Automatic annotation (TrEMBL):
It comes from Oryctolagus cuniculus (Rabbit). It is found in: Endoplasmic reticulum membrane; Microsome membrane. The gene is CYP39A1. This is 24-hydroxycholesterol 7-alpha-hydroxylase. Pathway: Lipid metabolism; bile acid biosynthesis; Steroid metabolism; cholesterol degradation. Belongs to the cytochrome P450 family. One of its GO terms (molecular function) is heme binding. It is an enzyme of class 1 (oxidoreductase). PANTHER family: 24-HYDROXYCHOLESTEROL 7-ALPHA-HYDROXYLASE, CYTOCHROME P450 FAMILY 7. Heme binds at residue 418.
C-alpha cells in the first residue's frame, strides 16, 4: 500500500504543476496589458517624444500599436483608448476615478492640499452645475448683456488691433464681473494690462505647472502669485458684494461658502481655479468660432441673413425675442459647436483604481486612462469629412434637449461632465458679434487675422484663416465699431437695443 501511494504522488504533483502553469499562463494571457511605448531612458521613458507634440504622437501610436496602448513617461503609465468600447468604459466604469486623476495637477497648479481638494470637490461640482445650468443662466442674461456693452464702451473706438486681444479684452472682464462680482475686474489701464499678462502666462504654463516643480518655472510662479494676491486682497469685497438680484449669490460667493465651511486659507486658490476654468477654454473657442466663420463666406452670409430675418424689423428699445425667433439663430449655435468640435481638448483623464478590461487587454490599477476628444472628433464614422468646418452636421443634434452629437466629447461625459458647457456656448455667441461686425467689410477675404490660440495638446492644426494683415488698423477700427453696435443683440439673443435694419445696411 505505501508503495502504491508513493507511486501516485509524483504523477499528481506533475499534473498539479501542469495545471497551475497552464492556469497562470492563461491568466497572464487574459491580463495581457496593452502594448507599452517605454522609450529607452529609465523613468523618463518616452517623455521627450511624447512631450514634443502629444497629439501627433497619440495618432502615430494608434496607427502603429492599435486602438489601445500605454505610454510610459516621467514614471507614469498613461493608457490611451481610441475606440468606442474604450470610450464607454472611460465614462461609465466604476473602476475609474476622475478626482484622483486630477488631484495632482490641481494641487500643483493652485497649491490646494490634496485632502482639502478631495473633501470639497464633489460639493463644489454640484453647486457649479446648478449655478451654471440652463435654468440659472437665463438669470445671467441681463447682466451679461449690460457688462458686455460696458466693456465695449470702455474699449473706445480704437479697438485692440488684434482679434485675440479683442476677445480677451471683452471676455475677461465680463466673466469676472458676472461670475465673481461687479467691479472686481480692474479698471486702471496699467493693472488691466498686468492682469492680461499674468493670466496669459499662468494659462499657457498650466500644463507645465501641473507637473514640473514650481521652483523651476520662475515666470509662471510669479504670475500665479500675482493672481493669488489679487484674489487675497479682494476676498472680503467678494463676500460683501450684494448683487442687484438681491439674495442670489454670485458663483464665486457660492464657491467661498462651501470652501470656508472647511477652511478659510484656501479661498484665493479656489478663486484662481474658478477663474482659470471659466476662461481658459472659452476665450480660444470664441476666437476659433469667429475664425472659422470668417473663412467660410457662404456660412457667414447665411448667418447674417438669419440675423436680419430675426432683427430686421425690430424697434429701437430692448425687445424680448420669442422662442421661434431665437430658433432662427440656430446656425450661430451650430457654428460654435462645430468650432468646439474642431478645437476640442487634447486629452482628458481618469485614474484606474482596479484592473479594467478594454478590448482584449486588461489595464492595470494605477494607470492613468486617457482619451482624446480632439482625435475622437476626427472619426469619419461619426463626423464625415471630419476636418471640414460643417455647422450643418449639428442639425441632427437635439440641442433643445441639450443633447450633442454621438461621439462629441469636448465637455467630457458622465458624473463630472464640464459644468460650464452651457455657459460656454453662450459665451461663444460673443464671437458672433465680431463676425457680424466683419460682415461690413466687403473685402474681408483679404482681411485681418492674427495667429490664434492653439488647442490644448500642442498640436498645430492647419490654420483655417487667410492669415494676412492687410490694413490691419483701419479694418480693426471699422470692425470694432460694428462689433460694439451688435454686441447687445448677438450676445445672448434675448434683448435688442438698436434698430438692426439700419445696422445691416451700414
Ligand atoms: C469651450 C469651452 C469649454 C470646454 C471645451 C470645456 C471642457 C471641459 C472638460 C473636458 C472638462 C473635464 C471633463 C471630464 O474630464 O470629463 C471640464 C471641466 C470643468 N469645466 Fe469646462 N470647458 C469649457 C468651458 C468652461 C466654462 C466656461 C466653465 C465655467 C464657467 C467651465 C468650468 C469647468 C469646471 C469647473 C470643470 C471641473 C469639473 C470638476 O472638477 O468636476 N468650463 N471642462
Amino acid at each position: 500500500m505505501p508503495d502504491n501511494s508513493m507511486g501516485l504522488i509524483f504523477p499528481t504533483l506533475i499534473l498539479f504543476l501542469v495545471v497551475v502553469t497552464l492556469f497562470s499562463f492563461l491568466q497572464r494571457k487574459n491580463v495581457r496589458g496593452p502594448p507599452c511605448i517605454r522609450g529607452w531612458i529609465p523613468w523618463l521613458g518616452a517623455s521627450f517624444e511624447f512631450g514634443k507634440a502629444p497629439l501627433e504622437f497619440i495618432e502615430q501610436a494608434r496607427i502603429k500599436y492599435g486602438p489601445i496602448f500605454t505610454v510610459f513617461a516621467m514614471g507614469n503609465r498613461m493608457t490611451f483608448v481610441t475606440e468606442e468600447e474604450g470610450i464607454d468604459v472611460f465614462f461609465k466604469s466604476k473602476k475609474l476615478n476622475f478626482e484622483l486623476a486630477i488631484q495632482n495637477p490641481i494641487c500643483h497648479t493652485a497649491s490646494i492640499p490634496k485632502n482639502i481638494f478631495l473633501t470639497l470637490h464633489e460639493k463644489l461640482y454640484i453647486m457649479l452645475k446648478g449655478k451654471l445650468g440652463t435654468l440659472n443662466l437665463y438669470q445671467f442674461t441681463g447682466q451679461l448683456t449690460e457688462e458686455l456693452h460696458e466693456q465695449l464702451e470702455n474699449l473706445g473706438t480704437r479697438g485692440t488691433m488684434d482679434l485675440n486681444d479683442l476677445i480677451r479684452h471683452v471676455l475677461y472682464p465680463v466673466t469676472v464681473n458676472v461670475l465673481f462680482n461687479k467691479g472686481l475686474f480692474l479698471t486702471n489701464k496699467r493693472k488691466i494690462k498686468e492682469f492680461h499678462h499674468h493670466f496669459q502666462v499662468f494659462d499657457e504654463g498650466f500644463e507645465y505647472g501641473s507637473q514640473v516643480p514650481e521652483c523651476l518655472l520662475r515666470n509662471w510662479s510669479k504670475s500665479k502669485k500675482w493672481l493669488l494676491t489679487l484674489f487675497e486682497k479682494n476676498i472680503s469685497d467678494i463676500k460683501a458684494y450684494k448683487s442687484a438680484k438681491g439674495n442670489s449669490l454670485t458663483v464665486m460667493q457660492a464657491v467661498l461658502d462651501i470652501v470656508e465651511m472647511e477652511t478659510s486659507e484656501q479661498s484665493s486658490k479656489y478663486g484662481l481655479l474658478t477663474l482659470w476654468a471659466s476662461l481658459s477654454n472659452a476665450a480660444p473657442i470664441a476666437f476659433w468660432t469667429l475664425g472659422f466663420i470668417l473663412s467660410h463666406p457662404d456660412i457667414h452670409k447665411n448667418i447674417m441673413q438669419s440675423i436680419s430675418s430675426v432683427f430686421g424689423t425690430a424697434g429701437k428699445d430692448k425687445i424680448k425675442l420669442s422662442e421661434d425667433e431665437l430658433k432662427k439663430l440656430l446656425l450661430i449655435k451650430w457654428c460654435i459647436l462645430e468650432a468646439v468640435r474642431l478645437r476640442a481638448p487634447g486629452i482628458i483623464t481618469r485614474k484606474v483604481m482596479k484592473p479594467v478590461k478594454i478590448l482584449n487587454h486588461t489595464v492595470p490599477a494605477g494607470d492613468l486612462l486617457m482619451l482624446s476628444p480632439f482625435w475622437q472628433h476626427r472619426n469619419p464614422k461619426y463626423f464625415p469629412e471630419p476636418e471640414l468646418f460643417k455647422p450643418e452636421r449639428w442639425k441632427k443634434a437635439n440641442l433643445e434637449k441639450h443633447a450633442f452629437l454621438d461621439c462629441f466629447l469636448a465637455f467630457g461625459r458622465g458624473k463630472f461632465q464640464c459644468p460650464g458647457r452651457v455657459f460656454c456656448i453662450w459665451w461663444g455667441s460673443l464671437s458672433q458679434m465680431g463676425n457680424a461686425a466683419l460682415n461690413i467689410n466687403k473685402e474681408y477675404d483679404t482681411c485681418w487675422a492674427t495667429k490664434g490660440p492653439e488647442p490644448s495638446g500642442e498640436v498645430t492644426p492647419p490654420c483655417p484663416l487667410p492669415w494676412q494683415r492687410l490694413d490691419l488698423r483701419s479694418l480693426t477700427i471699422h470692425c470694432f465699431a460694428l462689433f460694439k453696435k451688435y454686441a447687445m443683440v448677438y450676445a445672448f439673443g434675448i434683448f435688442k437695443t438698436r434698430n438692426l435694419t439700419s445696422l445691416a445696411t451700414v
